Each structure stands twice: as structure tokens, then as C-alpha cells.
Amino acid sequence: MIINKNKETERKCLIIYLLNPSVMLALINISCLMFLPEKTCASGWRMFSCSCYLLSEKTGSWDEGRSDCRDRGADLVVIDSSEEQDFLVSFTQKQTWIGLNDKEEEGRWKWVDGTPLTSLTFWSPRQPDNGGEDPQWGEEDCVHIRTDGNTLWNDRSCRNSFPWVCEKIP
Ligand SMILES: [Ca+2]
Ligand SMILES: [Ca+2]
Ligand SMILES: [Ca+2]
């Protein structure tokens, strides 16, 4: 009986352990290494989890960033996890475009891969504000990671000039 109870506890602990995000990420990384041994990132790109990332040297509008990424067989980064958000913050160290916008319909945020924004968001306080109706900011439909004291997201005019981050599955 006691042995069974211990076994039960052990099993519960194992499940909790496996559900831990950092353990899951480690498992994903291991499976990348095991099943995709030939998949590596091109020179200049950085690997994290199963993706390769490039921080642009140039700056430009959100659309210029996106078309540069697409020319490289990639697209602007889609943030799927808090680990990816943390990685990007340490990888970029400056304001950069990410692949999120509400160009099609105000307030309906969509990633460049077509997926709608879920509850996993990293908005700065009081953002998104679509420019807060202040004419100097204009309509704000594109998202960047900002650095003024924080690392969270802000919506900004798509015409603004920032570097960008491309993401590609090798
Ligand atoms: Ca991603
Ligand atoms: Ca907007
Ligand atoms: Ca804003």
C-alpha cells in the first residue's frame, strides 16, 4: 500500500516536472538535436529552440523589414513562448520590429504566420494604444520590442524606422 502511494506520488512529480516550461523547452531542444542533426543555422543566424534568428543591420519600416526577411526565406519573428520572448530581449538589446500587426482590422492583432494573438502577450503598460489619438504618433498598427526601461511590446506607426528580427525554421 505504502509502496503504491509512493509510486503514485512519484508519477505525479514526474508529470509536474515534465510540464515545467523550462524542462519542456530543454526536451524540445534535445529533440531538435536528436531528430534534426543536419539542421543548423546559416552563418550570422543564431539558433534558439528549433528556430534560427537574424537581427538586421539595417533599419526600416515594418514592411521593409518583413520583405527583407521573406527575401531570406524567413519572416518577421513570431513569439510563441515566454522563453522565446526572453531570448529575443537578450538577443536584440534594442528596439526591433516583430511580426505582429493589426493593419487589417484595428485591434485584431495577427502574427505574420496568420495566427491570431493569443493570451500570451507582453504588452507594455497602457499599450497597445494605437497612438493614443495623438496626431504626432499617427495610427499605430505594427509592434516593436522597446527598451526605454523595459523590454515589452509597443504598437507604433508601421512607417517608423527600426531594425527587425527574422525567424526561420532550418
Ligand atoms: Ca517563434
Ligand atoms: Ca492599431
Ligand atoms: Ca503605442
TrEMBL record:
Matching PANTHER family: MANNOSE, PHOSPHOLIPASE, LECTIN RECEPTOR RELATED (PTHR22803)
Protein name as annotated: C-type lectin domain-containing protein
InterPro entries: C-type_lectin-like, C-type_lectin-like/link_sf, C-type_lectin/snaclec_domain, C-type_lectin_CS, CD209-like_CTLD, CTDL_fold
All residue ranges annotated as the C-type lectin domain in the record: 48-167
Highest rank taxon of the organism: Eukaryota
SUPFAM superfamilies assigned to the protein according to its UniProt record, in alphabetical order: C-type lectin-like
Species this chain originates from: Oreochromis niloticus
GO molecular function list: carbohydrate binding
Statement: the UniProt record of this protein carries the keyword Transferase: no
Sorted UniProt keywords: Disulfide bond, Lectin, Membrane, Transmembrane, Transmembrane helix
Keyword field contains Transmembrane helix: yes
Transmembrane segments: 14-36
